[in-house]
């Protein structure tokens, strides 16, 4: 009993040490090295801002629209608007499509060839055509984001429904369920973990291609901001943009994993 | 007999479905081309443009060497990413100290999409060959590391115990047990990395280059040559598919025991 207790506290201490203390120390040391490198002049300031500067830049950018004519909050808002609209359309269309392709053979044979032709083209390759067809407005960007999020949604919901346990299907059949009923009561629930994995991939992909779309063609947004940072040689602006982009991406991933845990609770019992 | 006949008929029906979808796609393309000829080139025009391009190369660089330029950038970057990524990934999965030091920094940088590095890299290194390879490296490195670390984490504890019983030292354990066991995961990572690398090199070339498929496609955009854009998209798609086939082939060769899901 006593031994168990000491083991437990040891484990806890280990967790504390490797989970909190060392990581925090590492980050602090990393920032200090970065700061020193720039201060001493190993890296010139026109190449990299000091980390201590970033806070000021952030506060300044909150209200200062220069140099690219929009403040940080409005940039974030515009990026979020574009990426979430494209992403949502892709989820709403892509996931049911994947289910149907996986469930009905006729749909599979009909949609598959087109899908397989389009699939290997990276979303970024759609950007030039999209710009020529739709300009550089809201619609064009949403279209590009849609493409990058659509493919993982379809593939994952297709794989998920294909992995449905055949025994479960047979049970439903024995109980007299119709093919469509089996889809809604057995197929779709059992595909949910894969679907969620797909949504996570889709969200990451849409956030990444959003940056690409905004860098190639936009007049606002975070990607536009860092591109302008390059044009005006403002590395502080670029790094700030990168940090914000990374933070929002990580936040998305976090929210989704929480949501996933809530929606597919039975999965935790492995 | 009746059953075989029935199956045969339904097979024909499904094949017709597949065929009709492709025909529909081409018909749709031709319809759009006739509706908006200034924006959509017809299949015939696209083909003519391809022939013209083969005869009169852009910037005196023939098509195949544009493709090879892009492929070379991806190849170098993915090779480097594998080299460094497998080492770091193994260390991350193996040692808690490495995970809580380097792993923390890695996790902080990873959420930044590789394309967001472009402005900073161009300020640092200009638009030469090196920043492009570096950009692809940044994108693919993270994938290899994550997959390798996951593979190392999933090694059977039993296998490790066997190693311990035979008094293997840490290096031997890594080389003889951990690496072979995590090979499938590593290869899954490399396959993804190839695909992602092919997409990133495109972005790198679109944002400033004088050769490569990404350069070609932006060239098509800036002179309004939609046929050229179409050709590029086809080529990019075909090469992407070929890369994935190649990766699965190598994967099968190196770890044949891996069962496909």
Can you lay out the helices and strands and say which pair or pack?
The complex is a heterodimer of chains A (270) and B (261).
Chain A lengths: L1 H39 L10 H13 L8 H32 L1 H14 L8 H8 L3 H25 L3 H9 L4 H38 L5 H10 L3 H29 L7
Helix pairs in contact in A: 2-10, 3-4, 3-6, 3-8, 3-9, 5-6, 6-8, 7-8, 8-9, 8-10, 9-10
Chain B lengths: L1 H34 L7 H13 L7 H32 L1 H14 L8 H8 L3 H25 L3 H9 L4 H37 L6 H10 L3 H29 L7
Describe the model.
The complex is a heterodimer of chains A (270) and B (261). Helix content of chain A is 80%, strand content 0%. Chain A has helices spanning 2-40, 51-63, 72-103, 105-118, 127-134, 138-162, 166-174, 179-216, 222-231, 235-263. Chain A folds into two domains: 1-43; 53-268, Orthogonal Bundle (MetI-like fold). The longest helix of chain A is centred in the N-terminal third of the chain and has 39 residues, at 2-40. Chain A is mainly α and 270 residues long. Chain A is flat. In chain A, helix 8 (179-216) runs parallel beside helix 9 (222-231) and helix 8 packs antiparallel against helix 10. Chain B has helices at 2-35, 43-55, 63-94, 96-109, 118-125, 129-153, 157-165, 170-206, 213-222, 226-254. The longest helix of chain B has 37 residues, at 170-206. Chain B has two domains: 1-40; 41-254, Orthogonal Bundle (MetI-like fold), CATH 1.10.3720. By secondary structure, chain B is mainly alpha-helical. Chains A and B meet through helix 1, helix 4, helix 5, helix 8 and helix 9 of A and helix 1, helix 4, helix 5, helix 8 and helix 9 of B.
